[in-house]
Amino acid sequence: MDMIKIGLIGLGTIGTGVAKTLLENESLIEDRLGFSLSLKAIADLDIEKDRGVNIPRGMLTTNTSLLIDDPEIDIIVELIGGTEPARTFIINALKKGKHVVTANKALLATHGKELFDAAQTYGKDLYYEAAVGGGIPIIKTLREALIANNYTFIYGILNGTCNFILTEMSEKGSTFQEALAKAKELGYAESDPTLDIEGIDAAHKLALVTSLAYGVPPDMHSVYVEGITNIDSLDVTFAHELGYKLKLLALAIDRGDKVEARVHPTLVPVNYLLAKVDGVFNAFYVRGDIVDSTLFYGRGAGMMPTASAVVSDLADIGRNIRAGIAGRIPHLGYRKGSSVPKSYMPIDDIYTNYYIRINAMDRPGVLAKIAGILGDRDISIVSVIQKGREDLDFVPVVLLTHEARESNVKSAIVAISAMEEVSGTPVVLRVEDKKLKNKTA
Q1: In this predicted model, what pLDDT tens digit does every residue of 60-94 receive, in sequence order?
Q2: I want to staple 127 with a disulfide (CB 3.0 to 4.6 A). Which of 57, 178, 201, 313 is the partner?
């Protein structure tokens, strides 16, 4: 077989990038593979819009079934996003004997088990490199390149919109709303940015990464999620004063028979490489017991970087087709019957360091009372910043803690909030700093 024929469902931003790549770089790809990846047909609701790519008119259709039912098409690429009808398209394509490539992180994070089971049942491959990290080949790395490693932890900056907003707040002193408005103006944020700024997009990606690394089923509902909508520029300033930068961090951490999977704003030391990942860029910091520390950095979204990942999957599946095999690599990195099953750790059970900002009365004894509440819950203080102002009744008090249990911190915040010397609810942010750890992660 000198030609692998491809059907593309969805001609949005990423679909256009894939079509452009396959049509314009077809000769280069064929030279490297020894066979052609030939785009045969494209289905989309709007086939009249000019995408800036010279697509033969006869290649376009609004009827998705024509692609799925076409016996000549070997691989279906699903790039419409959302849950339905994407899920149905993928299931039907697998039933029809076609391999599938998708970039649909939300679908895989919620229905991944069903879809991967279907691929196995029908003896086909379902690849998804473009679902996580855009042009960064993190799926292939975790599933193949670092196969010999137990992953101690994986930290990621997985959402370019949030990273851009926090960079603007850090470097230019913008408020959250000002930074969000600029992100929209530059096209980095959608008109409705909820999935990004609430951390949901990053959580979808983390669910897949956690599954690959630790053999747990992809389960979006088991990932703890906090977004950045409540980040105050005052906390960005205090973080700098303490030697940190604020990042929306995704964390997957091995805890023996359990795994932590959480996404939230996090204070990261300014000398860490992750702290230097700014703007719309993404990064993954992966530590394995054999390879030690590795860092993967690049564009985590966008038309062409994500198209690059899709075509990488097409090339891999094309090689499998040429060899007459499927399922050579487990979809989620593990064969069934993993010898060390893990479960997700509830957020209340985690231990980490905390940044706590309290709006407290500037009078003797208040700080001692707060310290007493913390001490009663086994929370010790590393450092304190207190800004006294003669013209205000309440002033910010910032505490940095040693490692503490999340449930104890929540209990302490309830008690501190009830103090008559405290105004409002304290701000709590988690800190990832190995110098503060009781044990090195």
Answers
A1: 999 999 999 999 999 999 999 999 999 999 999 99
A2: 313
Count CB-CB contacts under 10 A for residue 384.
12
Q: Which fold has domain 138-299?
A: Dihydrodipicolinate Reductase; domain 2 (3.30.360)
Question: For residue 76, which of 61, 91, 54 has the smallest C-alpha distance?
Answer: 91
* C-alpha to C-alpha distance for 205 and 104, rounded to whole angstroms: 10
Say if CB 18 and CB 77 are below 8 A apart: yes
The H or E element containing residue 213 is helix 200-214
Cα separation of 431 and 437, whole Å? 10
Please give the CATH superfamily to which domain 351-436 belongs.
ACT domain (3.30.70.260)
What is the tally of helices (H) and strands (E) in the chain?
14, 18
To which residue do tokens 């911190």 refer?
409
- The CATH 3.30.70.260 portion of the chain extends over 351-436
pLDDT in tens, 377-428: 999 999 998 876 655 678 899 999 999 999 999 999 999 999 999 999 999 9
- DSSP three-state, residue 217: coil
Residue 439 has pLDDT above 50, yes or no: no
pLDDT tens-place string over residues 320-331 = 999 999 989 988
In this model, does residue 339 exceed pLDDT 80?
A: no
The Cα angle at residue 166 between residues 308 and 411, in degrees rounded to 5: 115
Question: Cα 60 from chain centroid?
Answer: 33
pTM over 0.70: yes
- Before 341, cis peptide (omega within 30)? no
CATH number of 3-137+303-323: 3.40.50.720
Contact (Cβ atoms closer than 8 angstroms) between residue 141 and residue 133: no
Written as one letter, the residue type at 233 is S
Per-residue confidence band for 440, with pLDDT thresholds at 50, 70 and 90? very low
* Catalytic residue chosen out of the listed positions 20, 98, 205, 247: 205
205 belongs to the catalytic site: yes
The DSSP 8-state label assigned to residue 401 in this structure reads E
